Amino acid sequence: MRRSLVVGWIAAIGGLAAAGCGATTPVAQGSANSTQTARRQLEGKWTMLTMVVNSEQGKRATPQAAGDLSLDEFGNITVEYRISDAGRAALEAIGVKSPNPVISAQGRVAVDPQRKVVTYMPPDANARALSADLAALRANPLAIEHTRYYVIGSDGILTLTTRHPNGKEATRSTWKRAS
């Protein structure tokens, strides 16, 4: 009798343990701060809603612009900003010159989920490492080469910001998932 009671308890505990193994845990889904989880959150096609640009002197413009961003599970990115003539005039009024009405790029991004940072890496990154032209591009707050800080709100809106060398916000754009 005693032996069958012990065997019964072992079977019951084993059954409960086996039932618990099927439960999904945060570890099984991946850490909220893992690169894989962050990429999944950012993955997809996005449409720009708004853009705000600040000069280093603190002047602000909200240029008329549109944009599309696409990011796949491997970190490949395609991005395009289209700035209207009125938008370019608004930028020039605060001392920011857009080199073209259309800014587009393809490449890869590195995602740092702890710092909430996305860093663009162009296909020719090694050749451009010491380029004077690249340094000039970085002086423009719209340049894709700037590190982007990201936040995805509870409403699903993606906010990307860049910073000037002094740490002040240079650009802020908001994006929604494309349907």
Detailed description of the structure:
- The protein contains 6 helices and 9 strands.
- It is α+β, with helices and mostly antiparallel strands and 179 residues long.
- An 8-stranded antiparallel β-barrel has the order 1-3-4-5-6-7-8-9.
- A hairpin with a 5-residue loop joins strand 7 and strand 8.
Please name the defining characteristics of this protein.
alpha+beta; Lipocalin; eight-stranded antiparallel barrel
The termini sit apart by 65 Å
Spell the H/E element sequence: HHHEEEEHEEHHEEE
Tell me the CATH architecture: Beta Barrel
**Count of beta strands:** 9
Report the major sheet.
8 strands, antiparallel, barrel
Integer-rounded radius of gyration: 24 Å
Helix content: 25-40%
CATH fold field value: Lipocalin
Global outline: globular
Number of discrete helical segments: 6
Task: Report the β-strand fraction as a percent range.
Answer: 35-45%
The CATH class is identified as Mainly Beta
Low-confidence stretches: 1-29
Structural class: alpha+beta
* Overall residue-averaged pLDDT value: 78
| Biggest sheet: strand arrangement | 1-3-4-5-6-7-8-9
